[in-house]
Amino acid sequence: MKLQNPLTFTRRHIAELRHALRVVTAVVAAFAVVKLLGLPQGWWAVITALLVVQTSVGGSLKAALDRLWGTIAGALYGALVAITIPHMSDLGLALAIAAAVLPLAFLAAVNAIFRVAPVTALIVLLPIYGHAASPLISALDRVFEIIIGNIVALAVTFAIFPARAHSQLREAAARVAGLNADLMDRLIDGLTNDLGRQGVPPLHAKIRSALKQTETAAEEAARERKMRVSDDRDPEPVVRTLYRVRHDLVMAGRAAAKPLPAAILGDFTPLLSTLRQDAGAALRGISASLLARAPAPALDNYQASARALSQAIEALAEDRKRLPREETARLFTLRFALEQLGEDMRDLASRTTEMAKPYSGPSASPSSG
Fold first, then answer.
1. Residue 290: band (very low, low, confident or very high) from pLDDT cuts 50, 70, 90
2. Neighbouring residues of 295: CB distance < 8 A, sequence distance ≥ 6
3. 196 lies in a domain?
4. Cβ(309)–Cβ(298) under 8 Å?
5. Of 228, 216, 254, which Cα lies nearest the Cα of 335?
6. Do 195 and 126 sit in the same domain of this protein?
7. Domain presence at residue 183
8. Cβ pair 162, 57 in contact under 8 A
């Protein structure tokens, strides 16, 4: 196994290293606060700090709010069960556990913000079995510890290399655009030969994964906007446009499921080669623009090559004897998919250019299609 240059490794994983630094700083700071306040079970503040610090500010805000509301619900309900249901025997404790977990588990299934509520209720309930403290005091301690952990985690998130979700959104969207360019290469190749066709399914899987990452980053970016942490643009139109581009490529993939008939392959190969080059350049240019937060490149070359291919298909359709009807239908499907792709790439380029500009209010962001 080849050893990697430490400097190269650091540059490649700078975001991950910064996140690790934020996490360890939050954990140590929470531990210091716990010791300073002399909390008997302050390790819950330390665990909270560990869980709350996420890779972006928006993610940390969500984790903090989820843990806070889940803890409050679980602690108060756990204390109520501990007070009202005798549980000094094993049978009584089993009934108390069931009474505490059942409604909170249902609540967590309905709304993920309460995922920690059942765990918190058990933490409050179980020590009572050993006469550790009164239920109310145990619940209040737990809430206080979680609040401390949240405060420390958020303070570190904002103070130590704060990572905005919009930056992560641009990176994820750029990866999707780059993968789409690779997929376009494979699809066009599939119309002229079978080489590289086996690489299409793995690319689809990578694109699906990258789109999920983009959605997650967009949700966190929207949360930053809502809480006035960020003044960047609404991220939703970018995600929606990326999904439309993917739909166009899926449609093109159906038309490119096998090579074109030999009777027309020679006429169409140069057109497809030009289209492949121009589409790849457009998508990779958009990817680079997203990463650099720069205006998107012009798509004139792709539009011209797609128009040339469309005209060739129209001319071929007039000669009904040259191709079977199903092959002609396949070419028209391809033409439609490429036209839609051109529209959606133009929309994506507009969104990319918008994201490169400072946001100055609602009027600066036109409505999306």
1. very high
2. 289, 352, 353, 356
3. yes
4. no
5. 254
6. no
7. yes
8. yes
